[in-house]
Amino acid sequence: MNEHRTCNIEHSTSNQAYITSETDDRRQTTDDRVREVREYIRTIRGFKSVRIVERDTNLGLAKSIISGVAEVINEYGRIIVLEDDMVTSPYFLRYMNEALELYEKEDKVISIHGYVYPIQDLPETFFIKGADCWGWATWKRGWDLFEQDGKKLLKKLEDGNLTSEFDNDGAYPYTKMLRDQIRGKNNSWAIRWYASAFLNDKLTLYPGSSLVKNIGLDDSGTHNDSTDYFNVELIGRIPELKNIPMERNLEASRKFRDFLVNIPKPSFFSRIRRKAKRLLN
After folding, report:
1. Helix axis angle, 150-159 relative to 174-183, nearest 10°?
2. Domain residue ranges of the chain, discontinuous segments joined by +
3. Distant-in-sequence, close-in-space partners of 179: CB < 8 Å, separation ≥ 6
4. Quick check: 139 and 103 in contact, CB under 8 A?
5. CA-based diameter of the chain, in Å?
6. Taking a C-beta distance cutoff of 8 angstroms, is the pair 225, 263 a contact?
7. Phi and psi torsions of 260, nearest 5°
8. pTM for this one?
9. Radius of gyration of the chain (CA)
10. DSSP assignment of the chain
11. What pLDDT, in 10s, does the model give residues 108-128?
12. How buried is residue 45: exposed, middle or buried, by Cβ count under 10 Å (0-12/13-18/19+)?
């Protein structure tokens, strides 16, 4: 058995897997695909335990994430979250578990993240203000700060003149995304998670190279400029975790901003909207 597989299995057996499968009984065309997925998840082994929740209604991604995280975190005190379009490095679980242990008592740190943009020359690990959603982990103390009411979050941002900083100095329209959530144009839990962490001046730990790849941005199965822009090579080792300054890394933040400014926006945002529509309908 090679080192990668051994590492993966060792750290899987210390984790309890909680899997939610939802369908919508109004959409009969999905039955075969749902059945296939459910047959597969019932075969999953290698974890300390596997709990499967099957629903014949579709709560939508936001309600499913919010309720699922709350249930697990209230029982176990911590959680590692992956959606079904995330592919992980064999070292993902070990990294997340070790980082959760290392920063458990550090109130300034709200979460651990597995994905990082394909940016060169980032530190081995570093902190960014806020929170993220592509392969992440937190503790109960972190999730207790989550504010579901987007109106409250937006008011605090506007009252504090924080919208420019929230948008990474105009690099990405996070404030617009939050306003759209309030108006019902999207139902993003992730923008509210980011805003909750940001307003509480909390930090998220990132790896310098990605442990997660998102394969769910392109619903056509073909490559394009926007999806390739976020594509990463998964790191082939465990990022070294060590004590680093408990503060936002300004150089990494600048590189994030430069990356976001150059997103091929029209095609990218259209695909995000299509994905959101599929999840909400």
Report:
1. 140
2. 1-58, 79-280
3. 154
4. no
5. 57
6. no
7. -65, -35
8. 0.86
9. 19
10. --HHHHHHHHHHTTSEEEEEEE--TT-GGGHHHHHHHHHHHTT--SSSEEEEEEESS---HHHHHHHHHHHHHHHHSEEEE--TTEEE-TTHHHHHHHHHHHTTT-TTEEEEE----S-SS--SEEEEES---SSEEEEHHHHTT----HHHHHHHHHHTT-HHHHTTTTTS-HHHHHHHHHHTS---HHHHHHHHHHHTT-EEEEESS-SEEE--S-TTSS--HHHHHH--PPPSSPPPP----SS--HHHHHHHHHHHHTS-HHHHHHHHHHHHHHHH-
11. 999 999 999 999 999 999 999
12. exposed
Residue with tokens 């690990």: 125
Residues, the chain: 281
**Token pair listed for 271:** 């695909």
pLDDT in tens, 179-212: 999 999 999 999 999 999 999 999 999 999 999 9
pLDDT for residue 58? 73
